[in-house]
Amino acid sequence: MAILLFVLLMVLFLINVPIAVGLGLASALVFFIDGDVSLIVIMQRMFNSVDSFPLMAIPFFILAGKLMESGGISRRLIHLANVIFGRVKGGLAIVSIVACAFFAAISGSAAATTAAVGALLIPAMVKKGYDLSFSTAVQAAGGTIGIMIPPSVPLVLYGVAAGVSVSELFIAGVVPGLLVMVSLIILVYVISLMKGYGGGEKFGFKDFFKAFADAFLALMMPVIILGGIYGGIFTPTEAAVVAVVYGLIVGVFIYREIKISDLAAVFSSSVIVTAVIMFIIAGASVFGYYLTRQRIPAELTDLMLGVTDNWIVALLIINALLLICGVFLETSAAIIILTPILVPIVSALEIDLVHFGIIMIVNLGIGFITPPVGVNLFVAANIAGTKFESLLKAIVPFILVMVIDVLLISFIPSISLFLGTLFK
Fold it and tell me: Fewest CB atoms within 10 A around its CB: which of 19, 151, 312, 337?
């Protein structure tokens, strides 16, 4: 029956049934054929999966990102980054990566980060003589930082699915996120040196202080969010609400770039994104419930331990699995499906679950820039007005660099866990 479940799921995906519907429908059909569980249980599982206080952080962080995008906060952060890095070879490409890291510290979404920063910087890079495919690939890769640096919607999902503290996951994501940012900066700098992109702009302290003053309130947003969480002032869910209130006040009353009439569109777009994520969670929870009833996670744990009890070899196998799943599965669905399967395995190997959460998220982040489901590639290509296929060659170096990052994070646990020990 478990094989039938996976076959049904693949068939539904191949005929372009939405992920959430495919997960729920395949599970419902198998439950119906099996006949040992009432179909009412399916509805109960779907409701219970989204009836969670930590999950309330998701709609609020999505809304905070929308407010940031509409309220001029992202534009000010980009201008500040440009003043600092514009004079360096590949300066605008570096600005793109740094701006994505700033935006990631508020939005928690890879696609939102790509869209918000890319709308401004892809045209600017092309105007300065950067190759269109390179400019678009830079933005798509930089957007992946959105799910690594906290607050991160996928980290919230993993925390709920694995029963791990979201606060601990947030603090563990900081250094790995910065590692990915620095590695991408080095890559774009090297490519820019080779191809002669950018550089030569003058740096002035007057311009810097002006840009810093203009972006100060924007810079304070992640400080308030993360400082409040790590300082024990509020929970991640409460921090999401604070982020919304702060973004609303700054965007509407201080920067005055959001009109009251604009709020309906901002709220409705946030609701749509939230509904999609929650629907995926609900469908995936039924899928995971059936797998658990069939003892699939336990059997896979026994199988893995039968192959090897060496955590290094096991992590290599798990990383390969996550990379493959990230290519074909939407991130939220992959987390909800794979977490219950993989957590028993990594627990048996005595791998820290917080560390593993970061490994999973960075792995799945690569899926945002790998076809056929590479969401960031589609978003960036749409902004650039180019074809998705034209980015495939340009994105390869970024994928390779991020794979190296995954291996470093996997086999040097202190990259993820060091910062957390300072707060204990």
Answer: 312
User: 180 or 290: which carries more pLDDT confidence?
Assistant: 180
For residue 407 the two structure tokens come to: 């291996």
Nearest CA-CA partner of 46 in 64, 31, 62 = 31
3-state helix, strand, coil in the chain (%, to 5): 80, 0, 20
**Any alpha helices (H) in 147-202, and if so which ranges?**
153-162, 166-195
Q: Which domain holds residue 247?
A: 2-422
- Check residue 150 and report its DSSP letter: S
Cβ proximity of 103 and 221 under 8 Å: no
Model confidence pTM above 0.70: yes
Task: Single out the residue of 17, 16, 30 nearest to residue 287, CA to CA.
Answer: 30
What's the CA gap between 119 and 102, in Å, rounded?
15
The radius of gyration computed from the CA coordinates of the chain, to the nearest angstrom, equals 21
Q: Taking 80 as the threshold, does the pLDDT of residue 364 lie above it?
A: yes
Taking residue 167's Cβ as centre, other Cβ atoms within 10 Å add up to 18
Q: State how far the Cα of 412 lies from the Cα of 282, in Å rounded to an integer.
A: 34
Instruction: Give the number of domains in the chain.
Output: 1
Place of tokens 């992920």: 19
CA 171 to chain centre: 15
